[in-house]
UniProtKB/TrEMBL annotation:
InterPro entries: DUF6691 (IPR046513). The chain crosses the membrane at residues 44-63, 84-102, 108-131. It comes from the Bacteria. Keywords: Membrane, Transmembrane, Transmembrane helix. The lineage of its organism: Bacteria, Pseudomonadati, Pseudomonadota, Gammaproteobacteria, Lysobacterales. This is Sulphur transport domain-containing protein.
């Protein structure tokens, strides 16, 4: 295993551990956060807030390095405008997240903890990714 694969494996494992520790592999918790007028669960707001604070504090520090530890340069998006593809993708993502209580990261971590919801969500997600690829090529 090369150092890039090892770094990816360790990063993914740390991300999955964080999702599991915060309870975000439980789709009911996410759906509770989205249910503003029902059984509201604010836990996800704290998880999201922690992620935003960490990013705000560390992003500029990391970029001061000049280059990543395991690459020759940073690969940041050059997009500076909002277009239909971005809005459409965000809408589809949000609708799926609201219906299932999962997005890709927690769904994959949910497989690791044996979540029944993840067992049906991940194949549906993969089918959607495949369909997008087929439609995008034509």
């Amino acid at each position: 295993m090369n150092r890039f694969s090892l770094a990816a494996l360790l990063s993914g494992a740390l991300f999955g551990l964080g999702l599991a520790a915060s309870g975000m592999t439980d789709a009911r918790r996410v759906l509770g956060f989205l249910d503003l007028f029902g059984d509201f669960d604010p836990t996800l707001a704290f998880v999201l807030g922690g992620a935003v604070v960490t990013t705000v504090v560390l992003f500029r520090l990391v970029l001061r390095r000049g280059r990543p530890v395991l690459a020759s340069r940073f690969r940041l998006s050059s997009l500076r405008h909002v277009d239909g593809r971005l809005l459409g993708g965000a809408a589809i993502f949000g609708i799926g997240w609201g219906l299932a209580g999962y997005c890709p990261g927690p769904a994959l971590a949910g497989l690791g903890v044996g979540s029944a919801e993840a067992l049906w969500f991940v194949p549906a997600m993969l089918a959607g990714m495949f369909l997008h690829r087929v439609v995008s090529r034509s």
